[in-house]
């Protein structure tokens, strides 16, 4: 089945630790995105990548880093510099064919800082 | 003023009611308008998509865009308990992947709808 997978589903981190969230897609999409969702805040864009080996900062990139070495993978690292990392993290991808490019979302990773 | 404002919730209605969900926006460059539905602890899924002004109907759902007023709406007819979810509006200046285009979406904060049996 085609889709987007995120792992782990739940993640606990101690303060001062870096953690990496995985996002993989088998939809052959060129573009991938990372969003953060907090209660009452909607989705806020962290980073996005429109092509392999290239990515751009979104609206709230501070304290996060990404890489895009493969088309199907777009891991997100939450660094110790992120002051309030507890949130629900969503990865999405969109295609390159003509017409409207719907963003497809993964199931999310819930990160809790202890 | 935020780029996209969405009516605050939560919203609770009885089964069978007509539901109206609304968003306003300030960026006149937005041309593509979407509604996403998100069930609890899941990722959002695209419900409706419209381009520019006008109406689009899909079953019990109607999406309406008024670019002159910078206002979009989602109507749900004969609401069902299975419609209980968070609804997010989203907007884009481009459809996604034209050369040089920016494929970013800007989301509203979302509104949680509960349909009571």
Provide an overview of this structure.
The complex is a heterodimer of chains A (114) and B (117). Chain A has no helices and eleven strands. By secondary structure, chain A is mainly beta. In chain A, the strands form two sheets. In chain A, strands 2, 4, 5, 6, 9, 10 and 11 form a seven-stranded mixed sheet that branches. In chain A, strands 1-3-8-7 form a four-stranded antiparallel sheet, with no helix packed on it. The relative contact order of chain A is 0.33. Chain B has no helices and eleven strands. At the A-B interface, strand 5, strand 9 and strand 10 of A face strand 5 of B.
Q: How is the secondary structure organized here?
A:
The complex is a heterodimer of chains A (114) and B (117).
Chain A: E1 4-7, E2 10-13, E3 19-25, E4 31-38, E5 42-51, E6 54-57, E7 64-66, E8 76-78, E9 87-94, E10 104-105, E11 109-113
Parallel strand pairs in A: 2-11
Antiparallel strand pairs in A: 1-3, 3-8, 4-5, 4-9, 5-6, 7-8, 9-10, 9-11
Chain B: E1 4-6, E2 11-14, E3 19-25, E4 32-38, E5 45-51, E6 54-58, E7 61-66, E8 71-76, E9 85-92, E10 106-107, E11 111-116
Parallel strand pairs in B: 2-11
Antiparallel strand pairs in B: 1-3, 3-8, 4-5, 4-9, 6-7, 7-8, 9-10, 9-11
């Amino acid at each position: 089945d085609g889709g987007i997978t995120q792992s782990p589903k739940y993640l606990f981190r101690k303060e001062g630790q870096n953690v990496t969230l995985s996002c993989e897609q088998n939809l052959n999409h060129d573009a991938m995105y990372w969003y953060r969702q907090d209660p009452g805040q909607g989705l806020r864009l962290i980073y996005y990548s429109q092509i392999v080996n290239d990515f751009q900062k979104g609206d709230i990139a501070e304290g996060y880093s990404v890489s895009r070495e493969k088309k199907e993978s777009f891991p997100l690292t939450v660094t110790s510099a992120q002051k309030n990392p507890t949130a629900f993290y969503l990865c999405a991808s969109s295609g390159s064919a003509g017409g409207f490019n719907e963003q497809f979302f993964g199931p999310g990773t819930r990160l809790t800082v202890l | 003023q935020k780029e996209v404002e969405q009516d605050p919730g939560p919203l609770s209605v009885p089964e069978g009611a007509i539901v109206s969900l609304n968003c306003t926006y300030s960026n006149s460059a937005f041309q593509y308008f979407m509604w996403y539905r998100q069930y609890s602890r899941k990722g959002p899924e695209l419900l409706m998509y419209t381009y520019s002004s006008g109406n689009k109907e899909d079953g019990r759902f109607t999406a309406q865009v008024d670019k002159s007023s910078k206002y979009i709406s989602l109507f749900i007819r004969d609401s069902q308990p299975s419609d209980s979810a968070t609804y997010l509006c989203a907007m884009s200046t481009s459809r996604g992947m034209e050369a040089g285009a920016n494929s970013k979406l800007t989301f509203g904060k979302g509104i949680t709808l509960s349909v009571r049996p």
